[in-house]
Amino acid sequence: MIRIHPAAELFPAMTDAEYASLREDIRANGLIEPLKLSKGLLLDGRNRARACEELGIEPKTEEVNGVSPIAYVIAANLHRRHLTLDQQSVLAAEALPHFQAEAKKRQEAAGKHGSKGGRGKTNPSPKTKGRVSHATEATSQAASAFGVSRARVETARKIQEKSPQTAEAVKAGTLTLKEARKKVMPSPGEAATKDPMVRWTGAVERLYILVGSLLEKQGGVKPFVKQWSKGDRRHFAEALDRLIRYLRQIRREL
With a threshold of 0.70, does the pTM exceed it? Predict the structure, then answer.
């Protein structure tokens, strides 16, 4: 069995039904499309290679040279799959390490020429901003390869870091990128509402504002209370006393 190139693992394998159909087609018609190799590693055709091995067929191979392995895998597979932009965004995020590794190799190769560039030009020092961030370059390349925005790739990357399972759900099409972002990366306001201390502080502040607003409209405390009956005053006083007791207990602990 030919060893598989790491880049070839980016796209998920066929379903059992899809593989069975492919295997039957190869059994009936032989292998029409050669397997693509990069330096002897299988770059494209994992399922065809598996079918050929099971059927005892010696597969035809073709070496792919002078191209980015990860870019080739994306170009060869993207049109075969019916993927949403959200799914493509997650795949782009998964492809980032491959693009980063290639960017690093290019910069290392460029560094071998020394500090002098061609035609008397001076190459920027590795410590200057002439050295483009591997991550920045990789994000742009991944976004371009999948036809999605850099923002989508960054969002998918952050979701992967925080919750790989959630990212897998987006990749499988059972969750949208927006739903996943909201689930694992709530906005500051959403995150705040989950903090009990923030909720309590907000409730006290809202009560303070409400009471102040009511008193202002009534012209002060006396005019406000004067319109109540004795029974209303008693009930309000009891409720207020209970509230004050709770607030005092909390205040003592602060």
Answer: no
